[in-house]
Design brief:
The chain is mostly beta strands and 254 residues long. 15% of the residues lie in helices and 38% in strands. The chain starts with 5 loop residues before the first helix and ends with a strand.
Length: 254
């Protein structure tokens, strides 16, 4: 974890509202985050599609769980703490250790229940492109992961608190980008950020991808790969998804 790191503080302030704790119901939890794909930009507006991204390994269960973070709910106290999602496994598109779905269901559920989300997103401009990733090599580049740690049952306070971890990322000889060392339980699926130097004292913050597994030195699936998966979804990413899952979200008693 970090101490008095201005970049870590900036990441939490800017993107702390883009993450949600997710995972199989009763199983090992992880993190998902919201990403805005820029579909079209005109002088009048930007048209985007919002996606929920996470690690494939977290989505392989019939019943899943999404934690509704109280600080992201308007008005305060209007939602239960959790959503249990039936047919969870069928709701995702997957490739290369990544799982994604449109966030439509989250917003439709909120509308039906009379509340709204107050979230942040990783935007298309922040999500790294191939040219941003070419500089990753064998030398560690300082990186930050933003995830929800898993605490022991009965521990006082928030059960899946948001936390930020820092280490280095490298590209190994097999061209796989990896996080150096271990991460706390709950960080699988978490977005990974770097500060890329521009000129002088200027730098750009980039989200390079997500933590794909819970191993030591986990794989970081980068956004060039994630974008290819999104591109394959077409205009309607999963035909019939809304019809299949509508009404299957139910509140779980706190």
């Amino acid at each position: 974890m970090t101490e008095e790191d201005p970049i870590a503080d900036l990441i939490v302030e800017t993107w702390g509202g883009c993450t949600l704790p997710v995972g199989p119901l009763g199983g090992r939890g992880g993190t998902a985050f919201l990403y805005n794909e820029l579909v079209e930009s005109t002088p009048d507006e930007d048209r985007v599609r919002e996606w929920l991204l996470t690690a494939d390994v977290l989505t392989r269960s019939e019943v899943g769980e999404v934690r509704l973070r109280p600080e992201l709910i308007q008005p305060a106290g209007a939602a239960a703490d959790h959503l249990a999602v039936l047919e969870f496994e069928q709701g995702w598109s997957r490739a290369a250790k990544v799982a994604l779905m449109r966030s439509t269901l989250l917003h439709e559920h909120a509308e039906r229940k009379g509340w709204s989300w107050s979230t942040q997103q990783v935007t298309d401009g922040v999500a790294a492109r191939s040219e941003h990733l070419r500089g990753l090599g064998g030398e560690p580049h300082t990186a930050y992961a933003l995830g929800h740690v898993t605490t022991e049952p009965g521990t006082p306070g928030e059960p899946r608190p948001l936390a930020i971890a820092t280490s280095g990322v490298t590209r190994d000889p097999d061209r796989v980008v990896r996080w150096a060392g271990a991460l706390p339980d709950g960080f699988t699926g978490a977005p990974v950020f770097i500060a890329q130097h521009r000129a002088g004292r200027e730098f750009a913050m980039l989200c390079i991808g997500l933590i794909a597994d819970g191993d030591r030195n986990p794989t970081v699936v980068t956004f060039d790969t994630i974008r290819k998966l999104i591109d394959r979804q077409g205009a309607d990413p999963t035909p019939g998804l809304r019809d299949r899952l509508a009404g299957l979200l139910r509140r779980r008693a706190a």
